[in-house]
Specification:
The complex is a heterotrimer of chains A (about 250), B (about 220) and C (about 290). Chain A has four helices and twelve strands. Chain A is an alpha+beta fold. The longest helix of chain A has about 35 residues. Chain B has three domains: about 45 residues, Beta Barrel (OB fold (Dihydrolipoamide Acetyltransferase, E2P)), CATH 2.40.50.100; about 80 residues, OB fold (Dihydrolipoamide Acetyltransferase, E2P) (Beta Barrel), CATH 2.40.50.140; about 80 residues, Ribosomal Protein S8, Chain: A, domain 1 (2-Layer Sandwich). Helix content of chain B is about 20%, strand content about 35%. Chain B is flat, with a radius of gyration of 20 Å. The chains are: A alpha+beta (about 250), B alpha+beta (about 220), C alpha+beta (about 290). Chains in contact: A-B, A-C, B-C.
């Protein structure tokens, strides 16, 4: 879908003034809810996300129990008021798919073998949406899991890269710029979207989706950019956790 | 007096080499390196590296004395909630009474609280508990609150120092289950004071000078 | 609320305290927990609010769209209310379509606003019989620690007060005719300063959703013959009966809902109504302060 919007100006600046490899503003807070075992509130550009973890707890219904390990149930949901045109409450097919790929990503880093027959329920609520909600959601879920004291190999983190500004003529796509962290207009009118998630300690890719058009060269650039973005966000996740609990020690010293 | 600094560590944080240290609880080993696997407080007493959990649900261990709530009475056993990811089974052969088949409800019913011991935890984390011990029984009266199981050591204190402080000022009977459930019995006002003090310990469990803070609170309340 | 069974000891303890006019968290029977009301928390919504009562936390968002009126009210805008008890908020909330609790909550909040005509729906008509504004009220429970009825109701009202009619989403020609229609009904625009993506200041004319002063709801729970306001989670777990009363600033009762399978005496209900008026006024003052209307 094309429009008259110029996503990149003459100075190489994007619509919101960012450079190609710049992330939007991100704010992360751990341990924000009272009932949940672990929780996180995260703002990423215009996205506002709350994640809550319950578990490990008995997996119900019983037939879903795995006698060898825990199952991670991630549930991604968008609030009705989080988007321009009100969304009917309840999971749609898109939400179910995102829930599935996030669950699978999280199962790679949570030490599920320690909790046979249990479930670790991860709830991700998008309260305000502005492109990249699945990345923001998974990132918040990672913090919430750590906040819940769940044993993990690593804290998973997610970020997207994409392509904007290409020329499309007769179905042929030429040119364009590979950029980090697509904003709203870039997501709507851009040429490719590549959200990924990694285990930052080992750089393993635990989530990867792509749609649009990327040459192999562009893909490599995009993936490198996204991985670097992930590492930058990973630092923010860790700071949020340390800040939340180190504060207790500081106050009394 | 040297203050050992308390460092908060997070999952995947590098803690040391297996060539120099022994990996203790809360850690995992990968290619000769030791990493934290939970959010917690680093405990480095060479040659051991441990991470003491800050949060997390109760992980049952054989021998733990805990407080459970009966969820269901079946014909020759009961199912109890012990604040773990799994329900616990109490068989009629593990109680001090002679219970006839189908008569379980006469002794323990849904909602009753018991002081029980973890008898066994199998590979699939199926739990069995027992009431067969002098210090185990059905709990009557008093009040029960729940704290994060990771706070239990702090509420008990070194050699019982903290819990004795609570008992001294409130003159309540207090029992702290390993699963984070705490039973308190005494005068209403004192029970309420004890709860306040325990919530303070829960909130500031890793702060320095906590014992003094708690004593001050208890003094001001009495 | 479908609650897990409370352990007997807990119930006995709360009952014992109640006999001495005490509550487990130290409050008096008629004492409300601290209430925090914040508006404008969701950018995408036309209006939004976040309300905390103690640890209970609710976010409400208002979305508006143009639609067709109901055949029996061709000149009137439409409002609809939905509530989600999302699994985020409590270990006991399950994912899935709204169950009885969520539906009752939504309908009680809805009635309080609808029956009192708190939203001036008659001013939301664009073309009689053809085009009107629909107001969607969506309530999202984020943290459940007792008393969802009051938290949800306050959040919905604060969000409505915060709402600006989304004229900018219409085409240029439609925008002008909509503005004319609103002004015909006496809805005057207010100048506001907004910031665009690059941080530049912009002046804009906002049309706030026309509202009348709404009734404020107040919820009570009864256990062991004690009636307490703003029940905590523990108190809701052992409550035998629940009563929500909505009152207006002139002292009239506008809506009531009794819940759970216990009962109230007529005297208890009369006292509850008296207390609702007092508490309702205090909450109304706080609501007005937080929304600067």
């Amino acid at each position: 879908m094309k429009s008259d919007i110029e996503l990149v100006d003459e100075n190489g600046k994007r619509l919101d003034g960012r450079t190609f490899d710049q992330l939007r503003d991100i704010k992360i807070e751990a341990g924000v809810l009272h009932r949940a075992d672990g929780s996180c509130y995260l703002e990423w550009g215009g996205n506002k996300v709350v994640a809550a973890v319950y578990g490990p707890r008995e997996a119900v219904p019983r037939h879903t129990q795995n006698p060898l390990r825990a199952i991670v149930n991630a549930r991604y949901n968008m609030a009705a008021f989080s988007v321009d045109d009100r969304k009917r409450p309840g999971p749609d097919r898109r939400s179910r798919e995102i829930s599935k790929v996030i669950s699978e990503a999280l199962e790679r880093v949570v030490l599920i073998d320690l909790f046979p027959r249990a479930a670790i329920d991860v709830n991700i609520e998008i309260l305000d949406a502005e492109a990249g909600t699945r990345c923001a959601g998974l990132t918040a879920a990672g913090v919430a899991l750590a906040d819940a004291g769940i044993p993990m190999k690593d804290i998973p983190v997610s970020c997207a890269a994409g392509k904007i500004g290409a020329e499309v003529t007769d179905g042929m796509v030429n040119g364009g710029h590979v950029v980090l962290d697509l904003g709203k207009e870039e997501d709507n009118f851009g040429d490719a979207d590549l959200p990924i998630a990694i285990s930052p300690r080992t750089n393993e890719i635990i989530l990867l989706q792509m749609d649009g058009h990327l040459t192999q060269d562009e893909f490599n650039k995009a993936m490198d950019l996204a991985i670097k973005g992930c590492h930058d966000v990973s630092k923010l996740q860790k700071d949020a956790l340390i800040n939340k609990y180190a504060a207790d020690i500081e106050e009394v010293e | 007096m040297t203050k050992t600094s308390r460092e908060i560590v997070i999952p995947s944080q590098y803690l040391g080499e297996t060539s120099e240290f022994k990996a203790g609880r809360g850690t995992l080993i990968d290619h000769g390196k030791i990493y934290a696997k939970i959010l917690g407080v680093l405990n480095k007493h060479p040659p051991y590296i441990n991470v003491v959990p800050l949060k997390g649900r109760y992980d049952p261990v054989e021998g733990d004395v805990i407080i459970g709530f009966i969820e269901e009475a079946m014909s020759s056993s009961w199912l109890a909630n012990v604040n773990a990811p799994y329900p616990a089974l109490l068989h009629v052969s593990e109680v001090p009474w002679k219970v006839d088949f189908g008569e379980t409800e006469k002794y323990l019913n849904t909602g009753d609280a018991i002081m029980a011991k973890i008898l066994s935890v199998d590979m699939e984390k199926k739990l069995n508990i027992t009431l067969k011990d002098r210090n185990l029984y059905k709990i009557q009266g008093g009040h029960i609150i729940t704290v994060g199981p990771s706070k239990v050591p702090r509420i008990i204190g070194k050699k019982g120092s903290m819990i004795n402080l609570l008992k001294k000022y409130t003159r309540c009977r207090i029992f702290v289950g390993k699963n984070g459930r705490i039973w308190i019995d005494g005068e209403d006002v004192q029970v309420s004071n004890a709860v306040q003090a325990i919530r303070l310990i829960e909130r500031e469990s890793i702060s320095y000078g906590l014992t003094d803070k708690v004593e001050q609170l208890l003094k001001s309340l009495s | 609320m479908i609650m897990p069974i409370a352990p007997t000891i807990k119930k006995n303890y709360l009952h014992k305290l109640a006999e001495q006019q005490k509550r487990a968290d130290g409050r008096r029977f008629e004492e409300y927990r601290p209430v925090i009301i914040e508006t404008g928390v969701i950018n995408k919504a036309e209006g939004s609010a976040r309300v905390k009562i103690g640890n209970t936390q609710v976010v409400a968002g208002i979305k508006m769209d143009i639609g067709e009126p109901y055949p029996d009210t061709p000149d009137s805008g439409v409002m609809t209310t939905a509530a989600e008890l999302i699994p985020l908020a409590s270990p006991d909330f399950e994912a899935g379509p709204p169950r009885g609790d969520a539906i009752e909550l939504a309908r009680v909040v809805d009635r309080g606003i609808r029956e009192s005509n708190a939203i001036e729906l008659e001013k939301l008509c664009l073309s009689p019989g053809e085009k009107i504004w629909i107001v969607f009220i969506d309530i999202h429970i984020i943290d459940y620690d007792g008393n969802l009825f009051d938290a949800a109701s306050l959040a919905a009202l604060a969000a409505l007060y915060d709402s600006r009619i989304p004229i900018n989403r219409l085409s240029e020609e439609d925008q002008q005719s909509v503005k004319n229609k609103l002004e015909e009904f006496g809805v005057k625009p207010i100048e506001e300063t907004v910031y665009d993506k690059a941080g530049n200041e912009q002046k804009t004319l906002s049309y706030f959703l026309p509202m009348r002063e709404p009734p404020i709801s107040c919820t009570f729970a009864k256990f062991n013959n004690a009636v307490v306001v703003d029940p905590s989670l523990d108190e809701e777990e052992i409550a035998e009966a629940r009563l929500t009363v909505a009152t207006d600033s002139k002292g009239a009762i506008r809506a009531m809902q009794k819940g759970l399978n216990g009962s109230f005496t007529a005297d208890e209900i009369k006292k509850i109504i008296k207390d609702s008026l007092v508490t309702g006024n205090a909450l109304r003052t706080q609501l007005n302060e937080s929304t600067s209307r």
